Amino acid sequence: MKKLELYTSYSREEIHGTLSPNTKFIKSAGTWGLQGLVRVENSNDFVFMVTAGTVVGEHEFDEGFTEDGVFRWQSQPKNTLKTQKVIDLINHDEVSNNIFLFYRANTNQDYYYLGTLKYLNHDEDSGKDNEPVNFNWQLMNWPIDKDLLNELDIKLETGLNIEKQVQQEKFIVSDAPEKKTKKKREGVKRDKFKQLKVYNNPESDKKIRDIGDKGELYIMDYEKERLQKINKKEFIDKIKHVSLSNDSAGYDILSYNEDGTERFIEVKTTKGPIGTDFYISPGELNFSKENEKNFYIYRVYEFLPEKMIGKIYMKKGSVEENFNLTPLQYKVSL
């Protein structure tokens, strides 16, 4: 298989030749020559070839991108939640398989390769009465260059708007979601589905250094307030912003528990919702195992760096025990 180049344009025949070279291509006919959703032979990989404003029969596809990199996509109207392809898409695992997105503004263009997709949710009320099944997908390679957005005539829709949320307190501490075991995915009701076109991309957090830096300062302030409230003022001056001097320590902030023992805090910050994924380094993972009685993840979410307000949940102990880990890279040696 040839390597696809991000943001490069491809004809249908070139897409076929790259992803399925052992099958026959027929121009303007058959699976690869005509359809917008194609399963790559002998795999659970899929290809989306999307043309803006496509009309099938009486149905005009309502698809688009949010400013947070969520792609709204619809299946063919004849598909239902019982269609095998739809079932496979709902259960798609982006770690094991790929959904390749190719997009063009009109039928006179070739398709631009925009990267791979991650399942977010689907509308359980769709796929009835000859209407399509509605999905929200996270585009893994986001953001896209503004010039390409203009060339593809993509008008970004509003994603998560935390600014409209009413928040009276600087620090809001919530319970962490429970660690989940893998199970069959179920859809959400339409009203909730429409609200979930939200930022959910850890790649964006990773690239925006300012979010992480300000998140750590936010937790420094939180820890000072926490110790003040539990009448442990003597520890406030001992709090250290460790990551400023040692970025490989395995944690970001040294604070203290009520009994005077050390509290090692790793801060993970996102502008997104509570369920947004995050990255952990091998060093942080190992440190959490070795210091599980004193190690804490402070997950700062729905964070507004401009106003330095957000929400926090905390998990004490080994990262591996508290979260579902997905291996993304391996070092390979001879």
Give the topology, please.
Elements: E1 9-10, H1 12-19, H2 30-34, E2 37-39, E3 46-51, E4 55-56, E5 59-60, E6 64-65, E7 70-74, H3 84-90, E8 99-104, E9 111-122, E10 134-139, H4 146-151, E11 171-173, H5 190-195, H6 202-207, H7 209-229, E12 253-256, E13 262-269, H8 282-290, E14 295-304, E15 309-316, H9 319-322
Could you give a quick summary of the protein structure above?
By secondary structure, the chain is α+β, with helices and mostly antiparallel strands.
Give a structural overview.
The chain has 334 residues and is of the alpha+beta class. The chain has 2 domains: 9-158, Roll (PUA domain-like), CATH 2.30.280; 204-322, no CATH class. The protein has 9 helices and 15 strands. A hairpin with a 4-residue loop joins strand 14 and strand 15. The model has no long low-confidence stretch (mean pLDDT 88).
Overview features:
elongated, PUA domain-like, about 20% helix, 2 domains, 9 helices, about 325 residues, alpha+beta, single chain
The ordered H/E elements are: EHHEEEEEEHEEEHEHHHEEHEEH
Q: What is the count of distinct domains?
A: 2
Report the portion of residues in β strands: 15-25%
- Name the overall outline: elongated
Structural class: alpha+beta
